[in-house]
Amino acid sequence: MTEKANVICRCEEIEIEVIREWIARGYDTFDELKRELRVGMGPCQGRGCRDIILRELSKSTGKPISEIDPGTIRPPVKPIKLGVLAEDQ
């Protein structure tokens, strides 16, 4: 029987072991992991994985979660027509 993978970031299909591997390599901030693995960049914008990853960072660094930078949160951008902005003038 094969062991099922523990997918932490469902949007990007990143497993906990991959996250732990990158933390062990020295990527010890959420933003670094985000740049390398794209965690927190899917449709949920980290709502599904951020807390779990912050806990893993806390365990590996020995810092309380409150001292770990939660990373930069950027909402998805939707293009709008210039005319919509001009209507308010």
Q: And the CATH topology?
A: Arc Repressor Mutant, subunit A
Q: Kindly estimate the percentage of residues that lie in beta strands according to DSSP.
A: 5-15%
Structural domains: how many:
1
Please tell me how large the radius of gyration is. 17 Å
Sheet having the most strands: 2 strands, antiparallel
What is the residue-averaged pLDDT? 87
Strand order of the largest sheet: 1-2
What's the CATH class label?
Answer: Mainly Alpha
Number of helices: 4
Which outline best applies? elongated
Helical fraction equals 25-40%
What's the SSE pattern?
EEHHHH
Distance between the termini: 65 Å
Could you explain the architecture of this structure?
It is a single chain. The chain is mainly alpha-helical. The chain is built from four helices and two strands; from the N terminus they run E-E-H-H-H-H. The longest helix is centred in the middle third of the chain and has 12 residues. The chain is elongated and about 50 Å long. Helix 1 packs parallel to helix 3. Strands 1-2 form a two-stranded antiparallel sheet. The protein starts with 6 loop residues before the first strand and ends with a helix. The model has no long low-confidence stretch (mean pLDDT 87). It has one domain: Orthogonal Bundle (Arc Repressor Mutant, subunit A), CATH 1.10.10. It is 38% helix and 6% strand. 18% of the residues are buried.
